[in-house]
Amino acid sequence: MTEPDATPPFIVLEGGDGVGKTTQVALLSEWFDALGLPHISTREPGGTPVGEAIRKIVLAGPEMDMPAETELMLILGARAAFVRDVVRPALAGGKVVLADRFSLSTMAYQGYGRGLDLDEVRQAIAIATGGMTPDLYIVLDLPADEGEKRQEHDGAPPDRIEAAGRSFRDTVRDAYLALAMSEPGVEVVSARGTPEDVHSRVRSRLAARFPATFPDAGVTEAGRPG
Q1: 96-100: strand order across its sheet
Q2: Which three-class secondary structure state does DSSP give residue 13?
């Protein structure tokens, strides 16, 4: 039997709105449970009382006019608590951390999307995280119009960020693809197809990246049995 990695990985699912991150986090958490793998699944901004309170402000209705700098500082305030109170204790306790969003979102949304200086955004992120970085970012990629259609089908009203418009969504998608080329530890996975198709692709990436922690997923990139 393969021994697990000495230090459990910190894994983050990323991508634009409507790509299915929340669904994939839930499916991965079920898989981890089936493997008997100690883990926590969480989201960002959020995961702590202060983070959830800030999340409500950041994702308020479209009627709230918020400067981009305010948005950035609120998100990073939530992240500082998230790293201190959730990520570091879980990893120290031998648990895999699976998160819906982290710092790559900040670079994509507040850096590229809102037009803030990317170097300054990076510096602010470093302060909030104390240098904490995930072992792997998986960017779920989907054209912005398809993500928007998925959300419309779900029927939930758009939050303040989701209501920023198609041009903003396109910019964020392009940002993720650019960051995947420039940042270490970032892999892109197609979010097209059924949730099960996407889940199989993600499992394959995890098995390839962390073979001591995750067994062979037994699937190909297309999501079919290998």
Answers
A1: 39-43, 96-100, 10-14, 136-141, 186-190
A2: strand
CB of 162 closer than 8 Å to CB of 37 = no
pLDDT in tens, 110-153: 999 999 999 999 999 999 999 999 999 999 999 999 988 888 88
**In a 3-state reduction of DSSP, which class is residue 18?**
coil
CA distance 189 to 202: 7
Structural domain tally of the chain?
Answer: 1
CA distance 223 to 133: 29
Q: Residue 62 has what pLDDT?
A: 80
CATH number of 82's domain: 3.40.50.300
Residue 72 lies in a domain: yes
Give the domain range for residue 89.
Answer: 10-209
What whole-number distance in Å separates Cα of residue 197 and Cα of residue 195?
5
* pLDDT tens string 8-46: 999 999 999 999 999 999 999 999 999 999 999 999 999
Q: Are strands 96-100 and 39-43 parallel, antiparallel or unpaired?
A: parallel
